[in-house]
Write a structure and sequence with these properties.
The chain is mainly alpha-helical. It has two helices and no strands. The N and C termini lie far apart (44 Å).
Length: 73
């Protein structure tokens, strides 16, 4: 990524749009993983929210790690 201070307004807008695109794609992938593994959000900690990308990603990761650990036992 370029130094943001050196970008024009149009280049900054393009960088923001690219960031939003990748965020949306990451979010879509997490949703697909959630559905593929039938992950329920019932056990998500109360202070976490599905709308928060970090919380959602961490919960999906933790669920998959738990799933893997159960397979190994």
């Amino acid at each position: 990524m370029n130094n943001l201070n050196d970008l024009s307004k149009d280049e900054l807008i393009q960088e923001i749009n690219i960031s939003h695109y990748y965020r949306d794609e990451m979010r879509d992938t997490l949703e697909k993983i959630k559905h593929l593994f039938n992950i329920s959000l019932d056990n998500m900690p109360d202070e976490w929210t599905e709308n928060n990308d970090e919380d959602f990603g961490d919960y999906i990761y933790g669920s998959l790690r738990e799933y893997k650990n159960n397979l190994q036992n």
